[in-house]
Amino acid sequence: MPDERFESLRLELLRSGVAPLYVERTILELGEHYADLEGAALAAGFGAEEAARAARAALGNERAIAAAILARPELLTFSTRWPRVAHCLHSAATLPGLPLLYCIEHRPDLARWGAAVGVATTLMGSILTVLNWLILLA
Amino acid sequence: MAQTNPPFLTGVPELLVLRMLSGREMYGYEIVKAMRLVTGEAIGFGEGVVYPVLHSLEENGALKARRKAVNGRERVYYAVTTKGKRRLEHLSDEWKRVSSGVNSALNGAHGDPEHA
């Protein structure tokens, strides 16, 4: 379960393009580290509030931690590190699926068109059958 | 030609982390405690910044991580890989070269710079 103490840091890292794997790991490890620091402060005789404050201070502020993570490109997602390459790859991957995407997006129009073609084919088929029948009778 | 020395500026956290982990696997809190102990608390930093260093070394193949449940807590233990050992050797050599250069400058081994 993600540590709620570091929820704003987690959101900031995800928004900034840090790989989700490292975001979750960072939050888990910071939570454990905080618990260790707090435990050590309590064992040293600090009160609960003071221990929490000491743990926070020792861990450092979230902005500094975020800056240290963002300074390492290897921890960012591929699309954040190489946005142009990612855009090209995305476009190339999407191209073959464009007709399908078009169909999904225009479902109602295509359904109407399909129904109209169906009705027209049936009507024309019926007329031709009747005409064929009349010729045979004549 | 003079060697460049980017690790002088950027490799110190990596060097310390790899050195701490060269003996045995540890988790983040242990690493920071060991670092404070061996450096005599000479290097001050917010402890949370150790994690980007660890993750970066892991991403580069110098460390491997494994999760382990200990007393109901989930720890992430880090250990140095063969590649990490080579990186530690390289960073140690680099640091020794740079620090010996700085020491000789401080000790005035090549004369007084004001009269150079």
Estimated share of beta-strand residues of chain B = 15-25%
Please identify the structural class of chain A as seen in this structure: mainly alpha
How much of the sequence lies in strands of chain A comes to under 5%
How much is the radius of gyration of chain A in Å?
Answer: 32 Å
What oligomeric state do the depicted chains represent? Answer: heterodimer
Element string of chain B (H = helix, E = strand): HHEHHEEH
- Find the count of extended strands of chain A (DSSP E, 2+ residues): 0
In this structure, how is the largest beta sheet of chain A organized? none
The residue-averaged pLDDT of chain B reads 86
The tally of helices of chain B reads 5
The number of E-state strands of chain B comes to 3
The main sheet of chain B orders its strands as 1-3-2
Could you name the ranges of chain B where pLDDT drops below 50 across 5 or more consecutive residues?
1-8
Overall form of chain B: elongated
Helix content of chain A: over 70%
**Which second-level CATH architecture of chain B applies?**
Orthogonal Bundle
Going by CATH, what is the homologous superfamily of chain B? Winged helix-like DNA-binding domain superfamily/Winged helix DNA-binding domain
Determine the number of helices of chain A (DSSP H or I, runs of at least 4 residues).
8
